[in-house]
Amino acid sequence: MTELLTSAQMRAIERAAIESGEVTGLELMERAGRGVVEAIFEEWPELAGTDADSGAGGVDRLAEEGGVAPRPAASPQDICEQKKFRAVVLCGPGNNGGDGFVVARLLKERGWEVEVFLYGDPEKLPPDALENYERWVGNRSIHKWDDNLIEDTLDECEHDLVVDAVFGTGLTRLMPDDTERTWHGFVPRVFSWHQKDRPKYVAVDIPSGICSDSGRNLEGAFPTDLTVSFHRAKIGHYLLPKGPPQGGAVWCGKVVVKDIGLKASYVAGAVRLCDPTKSTLTKFSDTHKYSHGHALILSGGPGRTGAARMAARGALRVGAGLVTLAVPPAAQAEVAAQVTAIMLRRVGDATALAKVLEDARFNAIGLGPALGLDEEAAALVATALEAGRATVLDADALTLLTQDAALFAKLHQNCVLTPHAGEFKRLFPDIAAKLEAAPLKGPAYSKVDATREAAKRAGCVVLFKGPDTVIAAPDGRCSINSAQYERAATWLATAGSGDVLTGFIAGLLARGFDPMQAAETAAWLHVECALEFGPGLIAEDLPEQLPNVLKRLLSRP
Ligand SMILES: NC(=O)C1=CN([C@@H]2O[C@H](COP(=O)(O)OP(=O)(O)OC[C@H]3O[C@@H](n4cnc5c(N)ncnc54)[C@H](O)[C@@H]3O)[C@@H](O)[C@H]2O)[C@@H](O)CC1
Ligand SMILES: [K+]
Question: Where is the YjeF N-terminal domain (predicted)?
């Protein structure tokens, strides 16, 4: 799984590399700037051009090299008429701005017409950024930040590129709510004026205004087409905090991570991006070593059995050896008429459930979808938890946990809770309140922080759903299953898809996956199934995609 870093982790890696003498900060900055330029040309090859294509800029360079006589300074009108690529680079007061100066210089060297604006005081720039500022201003102009001037510059003639290098991982506070916040109003105006043929927007490391640890929008973020980060993606690229103003992935466009020559050493406590590892794959293909287990899925009463049936189907397709539906007697005929490979047990009440669970071969339980919210349902949840089996709790089971502290206290380390945002809020109201509070500074409290805190309190794995599903274990392990960027599957938000996820988790628990691994793998497969089917998906389709998805997964090199 890919590590996602916080700003502190990234700084520590950079500091260690610099202190060991492996590399200088200046070299890292040069590589970062070069990485941005590379990524721009990879994304839009039409911008790569050649010096000859790009017109007078190429001549400027030749002139500097002594090849031809320098041409006289061009008027703004002349510049607009020249056929060359144009960029505006917006630089901030820290090292992100430093990267911006490198980008400006490299584009200029390729013959681009580049205008640079600096937000902040040049004298206060950190040393590496200052060095690159000086390399830029050597014989070129730089503008003090001015909204109107930026707007005029972009309006004067068509630009190809706007580079946002105002703030990166060092964004530590909100933009002040006064005239200093001049850059804030700039983007909407540029967008409305350049809607059709607007320049490409590229963010250096992260769109300025987005907190790189939480994805929270500390106001004023520039929505971008491409975000180029370094060494590893940051957590904020993959979280999707609710607005207003919305943050994270919405603003990044597409995230490209460029190698800047830092060692790929293990980062303790890093959040990971879900993607099954080799050992997970082995568990799917090994038919001898692991028991495939027997999952028990609890069904609701008559007219409410569909959710459990879908969960059971998911558990079976994901590879549980056997799946049994525990069904209230009144719903037995309804369920029996609609299942084949899935077995059926009459479970009228908690006593009957306890009796069934005396059979140790039932090694995993899934319960909650359409289970009901009455005392009988609460007793079933209590009995299931007392059995100490690997257990996934969803939907009504989560609501029952919020209503009864004694029931919540029965949660154990083999449990997985799968709340969506509303259920999370009911289960952990104080934690949700922290997440909802407007951030006052960076790094801001994040969905990762919230899920880790919840898992610790519950003493079990918590899978907090969303396009940015966060999964955390009480020991601090944490991962994000992203349904964004190339894995965007908005059609997964369909009735019953959560029931299928419960089934996937129960099936993997039955197969012997530990709770964290079961939750991560199930969440990942769930999105893969949605992508496999495409738009028009209904929840019943999800388990049926698994054979293809697993075939593809197992044939991966
Ligand atoms: N040597 C390094 O450390 C490297 C850093 N790199 C770049 O450096 C960035 C991090 O640099 P920094 O740590 O200097 O941080 P930033 O450049 O992200 O921003 C820090 C500056 O912004 C100010 N600031 C923060 N929040 C503000 C707000 N709301 N309003 C006004 N000013 C605010 C801070 O006081 C500080 O001056 C990375 O994102 C990356 O782009 C890369 O060049 C790779 C190498
Ligand atoms: K930026």
Answer: 10-268
Domain ranges of the chain: 14-63+84-172+181-262, 272-552
* pLDDT for the residue numbered 79: 52
Binding residues for (6S)-NADPHX: 95-99, 205, 307, 420, 499
14-63+84-172+181-262 and 272-552, same CATH topology: no
Per-residue pLDDT of 130-149, as tens digits, reads 999 999 998 788 999 887 78
pLDDT grade for 151, boundaries at 50, 70 and 90: confident
CATH class of segment(s) 272-552: alpha beta
Expressed in angstroms and rounded, the spacing between residue 204 Cα and the centre of ligand 2 is 4
**Ligand 1 center–CA 94 separation, angstroms:** 4
pLDDT at 251 over 80: yes
For the segment 523-543, what is each residue's pLDDT rounded down to a tens digit? 999 999 999 999 999 999 999
List the shell of residues around ion ligand 2, using CB closer than 5 Å. Answer: 164, 203-204, 208
User: Do you find a cis peptide bond into 443, omega within 30 degrees of 0?
Assistant: yes
CATH level 3 topology of 14-63+84-172+181-262:
Rossmann fold (3.40.50)
ipTM, interface predicted TM-score of the complex: 0.97
Using an 8 Å Cβ cutoff, are 311 and 506 in contact? Answer: yes
- Residue 208 CA to ligand 2 center (angstroms) comes to 4
